[in-house]
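Much of what follows relies on a compact textual record of a protein's fold. A complete example follows; check for yourself that the lines match position by position.
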Amino acid sequence: MSDVTRLIDAAAAGDRCAAADLLPLVYDELRALAAARMAAEAPDHTLEPTALVHEAFVRLVGAAAGPQWDGRGHFFAAAAEAMRRILIESARRKKRDRHGGKHHRVPLPAQIPAQALSDDDLLAVHEVVDQLAAHHAAAAELVKLHVFAGQSIEQASALLGISARTGYRTWEYARAWMFRRLGGTS
C-alpha cells in the first residue's frame, strides 16, 4: 500500500493529521488536474489553477462528516468533482447582475486624436477633461498633451517629468475615468 493510499484511508477514518500530510503528496497530481480543467475555461477567467487546487482540497478534507473515500481513484474523482463545482459556482457568480453579468467590455481606443473627433465629441471630451482636472490634475494634463496636442504617451510623460510607465498608467486611469463620465460610449 502506497503512502498516498494509506493517508487517504487514514483521512477517511477522520485523522486530521493524515489529511494535512496528504496535500504535499498529491499536490502535483491535483495541480495537473486543475490545469486541465482550467484549459477549457474562458481566457478571462480569474480563478488560477493553484487557487482551484487549494479550494478543492479544503472542500475535500474539511467536510463536516469527514471525507469518505474508497481509495486513490475515488479521492481523485472526488477532487475532480469538487473542482467542477467550484468552477460552476464561479461562472454563476459572474453571471449575476451585481457582478456585472449583463455588462460587456467595450474597449476605448488607445489613441484619440482630436482631429478624428466630431465637434460634439470634442466638446464632450473637453468638458470631461475639465472635470478630470478637478479630480486628478496630472491625468488631465497628460490627456491634453496626448489628445489635443497629438503627443505620444512617452512624449507627454517626458514633458510632464514623469516616467513613461507612470504615463501609461495615468493614461489608462484617465481613459477609464473619461469613459465612465462619457456614459460608457465610444
